[in-house]
UniProtKB/TrEMBL annotation:
The active site is at residue 191. The keyword Ion transport does not apply. This is Pyridoxal phosphate-dependent aminotransferase. Belongs to the DegT/DnrJ/EryC1 family. Keywords: Aminotransferase, Pyridoxal phosphate, Transferase. Its cofactor is pyridoxal 5'-phosphate. GO terms for biological process: polysaccharide biosynthetic process. It comes from Actinoplanes awajinensis subsp. mycoplanecinus. One of its GO terms (molecular function) is pyridoxal phosphate binding. Coiled coil: none annotated. InterPro entries: DegT/StrS_aminotransferase, PyrdxlP-dep_Trfase, PyrdxlP-dep_Trfase_major, PyrdxlP-dep_Trfase_small. The keyword Transferase applies. CDD domains: AHBA_syn (cd00616). The modification N6-(pyridoxal phosphate)lysine is found at residue 191.
């Protein structure tokens, strides 16, 4: 009999969330407004260490409104890491602006801070500064903010932090999401904490929070009739989903700890294999361990990344290649890229292992056995 499927990063909800959800339902705050929304926002603002949080229907919606708040308009340029999920770049396109893609550093798989500085310097020289810089905290590990913020401050370009994968991570003791003009969180079903679909914009800037709240509720003016001075969006999160989010925030420390244990287990159980290199952990911070990823050197291991993926699938285990860089995506074929070889290599050799916080010891053993058997099988 085949064993049950192991998913990459499934939702992990319990009686804590169930109780809060049913209480919200019974309260009749079944609307994109209500006490659970306020409490969920307060919990996120507190964790990130900023004054304001606005709950939205997705991380992508939060990115869209963050870019508007940063002043991005049609024809503008925005620097975006190439190695990311498409949403980071899509939000730029929604505004008729163009992303310029930057390569990653192998030290953290995040955007290379030197490339951010070089691109800003070159563009300043041509009088073509980008309207904003987007950073992404990849797989739950912060980008290197000290040099990135130095470069952004030098040229007066606002930073938007896509911390969709990094809730609960820190950089030099400061929380992911707190580094830019605005930070973006995601509560999609595959993230470290979920509302079944949702997002959050976090910021210290009261006027940004006010503008985003206004735009997210159809830009309706505070008068009795429906008055609109600008075009708005319907981007607020439901109060029911915020109730689930409140429970997830209570359980976040335990869920991060579970993912950390899984990450360390994989390192201990697979780290001796030749040709396997886990995602590096930079000394500047503490990642949330959203996904445990590794690079495969097929020559040394005697098996390729895709052979490992196939062996895992055969055991009914879901794993995935790492993100396909934006500069290699057909949708972004016409965009400028600075570098790109690092991101391409991370994609061609990278593998994400099942990392959910409800993963059991038995699940981990199944993953490890499948990976080890393909390595041994190919060599023997
Ligand atoms: C998940 C994710 C998003 C989008 O979040 P949604 O809530 O799914 O819209 C944006 N950026 C990155 C890097 C992500 O991983």
């Amino acid at each position: 009999m085949t064993e049950p499927r192991i998913y990459l990063s499934p939702p992990h909800v319990t009686d804590v969330e169930r109780k809060l959800l049913l209480e919200a339902f019974d309260s009749n705050w079944v609307a994109p407004v209500g006490p659970d929304l306020n409490a969920f926002e307060a919990a996120c603002a507190e964790l990130v260490g900023v004054r304001h949080a606005v709950a939205l229907s997705s991380g992508t919606a939060a990115l869209h409104l963050a870019l508007i708040a940063a002043g991005v308009r049609r024809g503008d340029t925005v620097l975006v890491p190439s190695f990311t999920f498409a949403a980071s770049a899509n939000a730029v396109m929604y505004l008729g602006a163009r992303p310029v893609f930057l390569d990653s550093t192998p030290e953290s798989w995040n955007v290379d801070p030197q490339l951010v500085a070089d691109e800003l310097r070159d563009r300043a020289g041509r009088g073509q500064l980008p309207r904003a810089v987007v950073t992404v905290d990849m797989y739950g590990q912060c980008a290197d903010y000290q040099p990135i913020l130095e470069a952004c401050d030098r040229y007066g370009v606002p930073l938007i932090e896509d911390a969709a994968e990094a809730l609960g991570a820190t950089y030099r003791g400061r929380a992911a999401g707190s580094f830019g003009l605005a930070g973006v969180l995601s509560f999609n079903g595959n993230k470290i904490a979920t509302t079944g679909g949702g997002g959050m914009l976090v910021t210290d800037d009261g006027s940004v929070a006010q503008q985003v709240r206004h735009l997210a509720t159809q830009a309706r003016e505070p008068v009795a009739h429906y008055e609109h001075r600008t075009v708005g969006y319907n981007y607020r999160l439901s109060n029911l989903l915020a109730a689930v989010g409140r429970g997830q925030m209570q359980r976040l420390p335990a869920m991060i700890e579970a993912r950390r244990i899984t990450a360390e287990h994989y390192r201990a159980a697979l780290g001796d294999l030749p040709g396997i290199a886990f995602i590096p952990v930079a000394s500047y911070g503490v990642p949330n361990r959203w996904l445990t990823c590794l690079l495969v050197d097929a020559g040394k291991l005697g098996a390729s990344r895709d052979q490992i993926l196939a062996a895992l699938e055969k055991e009914n285990i879901e794993a995935r290649p790492t993100w396909k860089p934006m500069h290699l995506q057909p949708a972004y074929r016409d965009c400028v890229v600075r570098g790109g070889a690092v991101a391409a290599d991370l994609f061609h050799r990278g593998l994400c292992l099942p990392s959910g916080s409800a993963l059991t010891g038995h699940d981990r053993d199944r993953v490890v056995t499948a990976v080890r058997s393909v390595a041994a099988g190919q060599r023997g």
